[in-house]
Amino acid sequence: MTDLAHHIAHAPLVDTHEHLHREQVWTTAGPDILQDLFGNYVTGDLVSAGAAPDAVERLTAEAPDRDIAALFAPVQEAWQRVRFTGYGRATAEVARRFYGVEELTVDTLAAAAEHGRSLQRPGERLRLLRDEARLDHTQTDDSRWPCEPDEADQSFFLYDLSWFSLSRGDVEPAALHAATGVEVTGLDSLDEAMAALFAAEGGRAVAVKTQHAYARTLRWEERSRSEASAALRALLHKGAEGVDYATSLCLGDWCLARGVEHAIEHQLPFKIHTGYYAGNDRMPLDLIRPSNLCGLLERYLDARFVLMHIAYPYQAELLSLAKHYRNVWVDLCWAWSIDPRSSGEWLRRWIHTAPVNKLFAFGGDTRWPTSAFAYALQAREGIAAALDAEVAVGDISEAEAMEVATRIMHANQYECFDIAGTRAAIAQSAA
Ligand SMILES: [Zn+2]
Fold first, then answer.
1. Helices then strands, each counted (H, E), the chain
2. Based on CB atoms within 10 Å of each CB, which residue in 70, 162, 232, 261 is the most buried?
3. In angstroms, rounded to a whole number, what is the distance separating the alpha carbons of residues 327 and 210?
């Protein structure tokens, strides 16, 4: 092993994006072997490869007395077709590492069905991620406003404040009232409720996160108070389901802008999903291009925008934004498993194009710690291969490659996120 490979295999890796289940779900309702292997993005590849969508859904669905062999049989052929994708490789790694299964078949999976249960004990989720995957800490988006201290380790498992529903214009008066005590009857009280969310959670949240690209265009426009007020009146009258797309968009733009302003005030990075969709058969590429965000980026130069998933397949476009805008950071989260080879090549382009302090190397973007482990390993391998290639062609020295690795795996995140401040606020709220 070269010094560089050793460095990358052992350096602490900050995990800036997960959807991890809490400890209690892992220990009391943890996955069986199929739910573990396929409870991640690989199901999308299986459907694209020709597996029946309902058979794929059954792989991870809750049901009593699940028959592992019978559930895997209908997708076995499709599995053979996706073994080489990034998702497939990660699933194979989980099978090998945690179940001792080298080749996924009806028989091997049925025989190993209970092997993973020993991991589903208190503390194992933390040990797996911290000691085996060597993650420095995780940042989880659980799609909620409250960022309660994690019962397993409050300084390892950090949480994002979700701004998804508000950014898509889905203002829920009952939920806002429950969370803040504010009765939303118009724009003034909506503003008050959003301020209250930040007052309550801004300290212990590590960042703000929105994936409104799944529900609307990323294109943002400044909205006037009167426009937003009319949109909110319509929504309060007809409900979120009853209003048209233009009304939701207007309200979403309004709430997104207020969220960014509060994030600036609370010194929280603002994470935005850009690019590729999970799932199948719906991906309006025009809506998810990162260049749609230019208006927002220009309006809020004091914000720290973290544009996620390298905006795949618009990674070249995103690179130009990162090079140009002072307020853009970029996260390789999920990218290593979507398209490992392009991610490595893109990292090499980044090094010679954009400042090295603006890139984060990893987020697993998954729910089970076993999947996060496999995705972290995949990221380390990708980073090592890319930087090794840079050294091999003589573009950077091995010492410089190690410096780049340290930055993107660990140091950049500590510069951008106030990790110490977040941990202190969580400790205070837990006390
Ligand atoms: Zn995600």
1. 24, 8
2. 232
3. 17
Q: Is the pLDDT of residue 431 over 90?
A: no
Distance 109 CA to ligand 1 centre (A): 28
179 has pLDDT over 90? yes
- Rounded distance from Cα 339 to ligand 1 centre (Å): 16
Under 8 Å between Cβ of 410 and 356: no
The pLDDT tens digits of the residues spanning 381-391 come to 999 999 999 99
Kindly give the distance from the C-alpha atom of residue 17 to the centroid of ligand 1, in angstroms, as a whole number: 6
Q: Are 264 and 302 in contact (CB under 8 A)?
A: yes
Question: How many whole angstroms from its chain centre is CA 230?
Answer: 33
The pLDDT confidence band at residue 423, using thresholds 50, 70 and 90, is very high
What is the Å distance from ligand 1's center to 308 Cα? 9
Backbone angles phi, psi at 362, to 5 degrees: -155, 140
3-state secondary structure 211-224: CHHHCCCCCCCCCC
C-alpha of residue 276 to centroid of ligand 1, in Å: 11
Q: Which runs of E-coded beta strand occur in 258-388?
A: 270-273, 305-308, 328-331, 359-360
Q: pLDDT tens digits for 197-228? A: 999 999 999 999 999 999 999 999 999 999 99
What global pTM score does this model have? 0.98
Q: Where are the domains of the chain?
A: 31-119, 124-430
Q: Is the pLDDT of residue 1 over 90?
A: no
For residue 185, how far is its CA from the centre of ligand 1 (angstroms)? 32
pLDDT band of 114, cuts 50, 70, 90: confident
Task: Measure the CA–CA gap between 362 and 14, rounded to whole angstroms.
Answer: 7
Q: Please, where are the H alpha helices in 11-118?
A: 23-28, 33-38, 42-48, 53-60, 68-72, 76-82, 86-99, 106-111
Q: Which residues surround ligand 1, an ion (CB under 5 A)?
A: 365
Residues 104/73, Cβ–Cβ less than 8 Å: no
Q: What is the pLDDT of residue 60?
A: 97
Contacts of 169 (CB under 8 A, 6+ apart): 216, 231, 235, 240, 243, 247, 248, 249, 250, 251, 252, 253, 255
For residue 149, the cross-strand partners are none
- Residue for token pair 């090592």: 384
- Contact call for residues 358 and 74 (beta carbons, < 8 A): no
